[in-house]
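Q: Structure for this?
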Amino acid sequence: MSLQAERITILGSGLVGSLLAIYLAKRGYQVDIYERRPDMRKNRVAAGRSINLALSERGWTALEQVGIRKQIEDVAIPMYARMVHNTDGSLSGQPYGKDGQAIYSVSRGGLNCTLMDCAERFPNISIHFNQRIEDVNLKEKQFAVIKEDGQVDRINYEILFGADGAFSALRAALQRTDRFEYSQSYIEHGYKELTIPAGDSGSFLMEKNALHIWPRKNFMLIALPNQDGSFTCTLFFQFDGEESFSRIKTKAEAHDFLNRYFPDAVAMMPHCLDDFFHNPTSSLVTVRCYPWSYEDSACLIGDSAHAIVPFFGQGMNCGFEDCRILDQLMTEHANWHELFGAFQLSRKPNADAIATLALNNFIEMRDLVADPHFLKKKKIESRIAQLYPDQFISAYGMVSFTNIPYADALRRGREQNNLLEELSAIPNLDDDILSAMSKKILK
Amino acid sequence: MSLQAERITILGSGLVGSLLAIYLAKRGYQVDIYERRPDMRKNRVAAGRSINLALSERGWTALEQVGIRKQIEDVAIPMYARMVHNTDGSLSGQPYGKDGQAIYSVSRGGLNCTLMDCAERFPNISIHFNQRIEDVNLKEKQFAVIKEDGQVDRINYEILFGADGAFSALRAALQRTDRFEYSQSYIEHGYKELTIPAGDSGSFLMEKNALHIWPRKNFMLIALPNQDGSFTCTLFFQFDGEESFSRIKTKAEAHDFLNRYFPDAVAMMPHCLDDFFHNPTSSLVTVRCYPWSYEDSACLIGDSAHAIVPFFGQGMNCGFEDCRILDQLMTEHANWHELFGAFQLSRKPNADAIATLALNNFIEMRDLVADPHFLKKKKIESRIAQLYPDQFISAYGMVSFTNIPYADALRRGREQNNLLEELSAIPNLDDDILSAMSKKILK
């Protein structure tokens, strides 16, 4: 290998850290992962707060590249459509793509355990648990590890990857270097997990192969299926204001709120009031920064470089794509400084694009049924897709079912949206006009 | 006093920390200031790197309020005009305001020493030097102080103000709290200090009562007078690119560059090549964050809450205004939590506005002579000011010669600029048209 290194150190054995380790181990490097938490495989958290993720094309591509697609497919549930739960109790299905196209519900914990298992099968990967990283010294190439007993070790590194998430210790060190661009920005909504338990003998109480959404304009509830027949639900709701988490202080208030907006869901959630007050309310941050790397020795990857809100289901997929692109660039560069430079230059515009797409998609998800203009545009878009199945891909499709760079998906999505705005203003739109005008956005 | 506190702790004895201490001491509080550096009055830094500031109306108002205007006036040099040094060597003066209106050149070090002297005259103010603050624990109301010998003390506080600048320790603690909005953003330009020494027996080699500018489109040199007859010069120049700091590596290259663009200045700077390589290249950051306070116990003030670029000469003036407004709000609020809430709500829009105005003013300063359209608008603006001396104030005037809130100055400045754009497009503009159209922006 042309990129010289005895050992590579990774902060974080989360989804991206574990997959990155596999990529690097396959290239023959000795990899050490330092993880703050205990080994989740030995201390399995009791059910209840198992966040669900939607794995889509970019994620699969990155997993396939290192030959572990099959292991994950076994635990993933395909969701072929959004199932919209309207206020009047009616349901309407909206397929995500063409026949057979789906995004896949996976449990974060389960997927992480599988990835760590895959990683530890490599003799050249070691995961060190219960290692809290406190203070990365970029110049000395050293960090402090606080052990469970409070003892502090100093660890030297040669090459360091920060896969340590939205509150990265490596990024905190970069933030203190001169001319480091950084922003963290929270949305007005927080989220709270609720659960629809399985029915008799592990049956699903709603359609299994769908992502369920209760769009309510300013807030929404979603539900993703788990393998045991339950659904993990997430309420996205404003922290403050007229209708908000801060206004719901009693079980009676929570009962009124949930029953007013989600009566069909509540009927399936016997413990929702307890869950509502027992589960935390979490915040949602977008992190943007640059550069992602320090000289020839340290580089951010995944959420530590670009934490995004979850509304496009792309946080993990983007992090996995980071690993695949980094690996690809490793074949093209002879030293780490150049590699890191090429990596951040290639990924930064795409990370910025998916951050924007994710923020925008929240509005789309909340408004799915409420806005007639939006539905009219969606109808026209479907017609274009029918007429030109090989030449037209919606923005959602580009993000979820292709590996087209996010920045291109954002740009083409905007062009498409401009066209849809124009088309929706035409009184008697027929296929001839539609075809003529669609030419400019077809591939 | 209604706001209860035994002691108040301030981080930083810089300009804002010292003035804030005086405001609080006058209200009877016991004030302790912790300062990272040694006492600059005892360890006076040798001349050469004495950054100069432009004190304007907001600064004076805040100083007057605590009765120390006179002390500062004694060491301030009025600058009544911009003196533009054109590329052909010609000079053109542009008055800042009406007759007698000036901004005032003061040395940061000198002003800081005077403010500390004023502060220490109060028996209830103590300044503790050589105290590096490392770790503010907001919940425990405690911070760590690293002494010169490396010893660590833990100090408890009751009320804490962070006047500790752009890299504030208090803000670092706030950044780790949930839902804290934060951004740091650098411009592409850095700056380097150069010096025009005094002439024979302390004479000034250029017009004393002016701020000298060499606008060169993408970069610029400025010079402010010192009391000893010298001028402190600052070169604002891109870090990277065709013409940039990174391209000037040898004395020959520096010589060529400086002589090509600033020949008249170079003629007065015998040591400019040595200075160029000896003095550091510093970066310029804008920091935006929110909230500025934590519960009823801690609050940011000055640069720690809103570091801005120096191109409007308002960083210190804005920080001094913070002190005045805080003091005013102290008479209206019965507890610290309410006070901090009112303070940040009142100041945040104004801090954001001056951050924007400062970034915009860099372009204006660099382009002063180069852009005929800009000069045409300036001429029309002057005519409006002549016709309506009591009803029209330029954006520059509102910022520098009034205490009109920055947010209002920004908004009115934009309205004025829109009008100036309209007016400059009119072929035969006479006073009648001018007057008729100006009505909408007059007070």
